Amino acid sequence: MNVLIDRFDVFAGGFWLTFQICxxxxxxxxxxxxxVAVLRISPVPPLRAVGTAYVTVFRNMPLTxxxxxxxxxxxxxxxxxxxxxxxxxxxxxxxxxxxxxxFRFALIALVLYTxxxxxxxxxxxxxxxxxxxxxAARSLGLTFGQNLRHVVLPQSWKASxxxxxxxxxxxxxxxxxxxxxxxxxxxxxxxDQLTSAEGYAFIPVAIGISIGYLIMTVPxxxxxxxxxxxxxxxx
Amino acid sequence: xSQQTSVLYDVPGPRQRRITLISSILAALLVVVGGYFLIxxxxxxxxxxxxxxxxxxxDPSNENFALVWERIGVGFGNxxxxxxxxxxxxxVVGTLLAVLRIQLRSLxxxxxxxxxxxxxxxxxxxxxxxxxxxxxxxEVFRGLxxxxxxxxxxxxxxxxxxxxxxxxxxxxxxxxxxxxVIAEILRSGxxxxxxxxxxAAAAVGLSPxxxxxxxxxxxxxxxxxxxxxxxxxxVLKDTSLGFIISYEETLNIxxxxxxxxxxxxxxxxIIGVLFIVVNYSLSKLAQYVQHRLARGxxxxxxxxxxxxxxxxxxxxxxxxxx
Lengths: 235, 322
What we know:
The complex is a heterodimer. By secondary structure, chain A is mainly α. Chain A has helices at about 1-5, 10-40, 45-60, 65-75, 90, 100-130, 130-140, 145-175, 185-195, 200-235. Chain A is built from ten helices and no strands. The longest helix of chain A is centred in the N-terminal third of the chain and has 34 residues, at about 10-40. In chain B, about 80% of the residues lie in helices and about 0% in strands. Chain B is built from 13 helices and no strands. Chain B has helices at about 1-5, 15-45, 50-60, 65-110, 115-145, 145-160, 165-190, 195-205, 210-225, 225-240, 250-260, 265-300, 310-320.
């Protein structure tokens, strides 16, 4: 069990990096997912088609393939995803500004993939609002944008918070994949590094890595359970 | 859904439709021009559209065409084999786990009154302990990334001197995760059933195990079928993680093809399309099943009194399947 104490810095560093990528990807996916959700319910047919196509493509492709696309496709387009080197952010999230682009590629893949699920979670919330609400808003003369902003979205938020939470939990778990795509030093890559290259015993490393993920997923899951129970009572 | 979304806005009139048409033509033009300069030109400059790279994948007269597609076929076959085994195993293990958890729950409520006091306390303690242990196992395996369970299985088993084919590592890793998820789906399905079902079963003299097996489980399967099918889509997608432990599935074959021909973008495009087609048909199947179930339930006249948790129904409606 010594590895847990001796190499605590590796575990802590891995946790911090995984946490960083999860936080950034969650923010990105929530924004992009909200945009796609608005596209999918918008009054303009071509925009709806774009939103539907996006969701169909990214929901049915394994994340692995999306990651490969980001890792091979972006360099072929001549881009190292430098637009993600946002001046102030890369002070805090140092990997954003790193010369090796894999962190940024992995981030883009994770955001693109998760946004499709975020969109579906938001849309299921919008669908849960009783139709009479939107009809009443329309009969008052509110436009589509006003309708969403003042009437539908505030109510749909309640119904979509639990599905959104499960999407975020799934995203945290999916982020384990980035370690196998060239992002050095995250939790899953540390597991590989410690066991195969540095020859530490397998079980303690596995326990340490597992704790790292469980710290993020289990409390979030418990919180969601509580929210769900409370909503069930309120309904 | 269609009636839901159209509720948000008025049906567009002629003027609105004209504006929509014109602006979408303009936007399409913009996209085409942008796509040409930002995507087509850089790719073309790199020679990504040359027949050297595409030929083996799309041109039947190419010398490598037959071989490449044979390999992709082998890889996809392996993907399907692993997915089928993992799905079968997780359904069996997941069902057992769900039944076990329901049984333990009723066991912890029992007070063992016919027995001597110390023995009764011992049994009660034991059943509580078992319930807690299964609960912790479920929480842990549900919270771990499936990549890591596969990785741990492939690394951990050889440590104990047990080694199989990589196929079995992948199947075991996928099963550990998905059986727990399926168990939770089934359990919440059973707990969402109207209480009268279990009470009636007890009243006609069925034992708790019989109640679960004959009354609760079949209904839970029925209600949760859409969620179960979308979990199957997840399993199929997760099979692609087999490339981490170098199981010869579609992506791994893709890697070999790329190693030989040097055309990553083209190969991954084809593989992506393959996955999309298969998974899209599966999710359509899930939707179809759900519609049929909804119709069947209406005619049978037995509304679900306690609907299953929102997260799970949302999953069935298509938010899940991650």
